[in-house]
Amino acid sequence: MEIRGEVRGILTGFGLVAAAVVVAASGPSMFPGQPLLQSLRPHLGVALFVYAIVMVLAGARWRGLALAALAALSVGHSATIIYSQQQARAAVADRPAAAEFDLLSFNILNYNEGNSTRIVDTILARDPDVVILMEAAPVFAELPRLRQVYPYGIGCEEERTCDTLLLSKTPLEEGARLTQLSNFSPRRVIYAASQIGRQRVNIVAVHMTKPYFDYQSEIEAHRLTQELRRLEGPVVIAGDFNAAPWSGNLMRLMRNADLLTGNAYPGTWPVELGDLGVPIDTMFTRPPAVITSIEGLPDPMGSNHRGIVARIRLVSP
């Protein structure tokens, strides 16, 4: 009996720590690293629920039930956020389509040279209309093959500075630019526009800083918001945000820049979890652009991220 009591005590101690982490994941950003927890919110809630079951089975019934209730609140909070995002998207998605195009986005990983040919083969087989690549240096030698299909683009003029790359089948308008979001993210954001189905579409490629570098990701999101609000017409923004759409940082970005999520949240990291991973690589749109389907590439091809491909509809006003 004494041993069982000690086990329950140890489980309770770890349970309190886990509960504090889940509460921090659901609250506003107040300390460095908290944005990372926000992206893990649904996963932490489910993990806490499983831990609560372990506590109940170990004999700490009431303490386990209390943790289970907290886990249910956390998961319910995440579900509420997702439901709200999907309601906003659905209100636009039902409008008649004026044009459609496919966009592929993939963080290749800087040291993934051994898979460059396979990655380019996959892109060409998928045949999207627009391609956005991050940490793109491994495919630098393969760019001539890509440019045969995608003659218009910006980024990766030199291999040593090759990170964010945008390629398009349709011409890019003058004024397309590759710039930086912060000192942490040099040459990691591209602003461009192209005529797709007789509709001018703003296309933005972005590779944001990881959320545990103090508040750099929040600063970058604020600067990105300011730029997006200057753009006229439909906007499609895709890339590696290093945060999930239900994190506080990206929720503020969506709200302040009038952005919509896709119809699903395919997991992209860690790649071992597949669709159950965290969707830190994603896409957003501003009407009249809306994502009608989005999925993760089944094979990460040596990267530590999964690529994603989406069908984007330009709807009638």
Write structural notes for this entry.
This protein is an alpha+beta fold and 317 residues long. Helices cover 39% and strands 22% of the residues. It has helices at residues 2-26, 34-39, 41-57, 61-93, 116-126, 143-149, 216-230, 248-257, and strands spanning 97-107, 130-134, 152-154, 165-168, 177-179, 189-196, 199-207, 235-240, 281-286, 289-296, 308-315. A 6-stranded mixed sheet has the order 3-4-2-1-11-10. The longest helix has 33 residues, at 61-93. The radius of gyration is 21 Å and the shape is globular. The N and C termini lie far apart (70 Å). The model has no long low-confidence stretch (mean pLDDT 91).
Helix content class: 25-40%
**Coarse structural class:** alpha+beta
Residue-averaged pLDDT: 91
Give the uncertain stretches in residue-range form: none
What sort of overall outline do the alpha carbons produce when their principal axes are compared? globular
Termini separation comes to 70 Å
Number of helices: 8
Features of this protein?
317 residues; alpha+beta; 6-stranded mixed beta sheet; 8 helices; 11 strands; 22% strand
Compact overview of the structure:
The protein is of the alpha+beta class and about 325 residues long. It has helices spanning about 1-25, 35-40, 40-55, 60-95, 115-125, 145-150, 215-230, 250-255; strands spanning about 95-105, 130-135, 150-155, 165-170, 175-180, 190-195, 200-205, 235-240, 280-285, 290-295, 310-315.
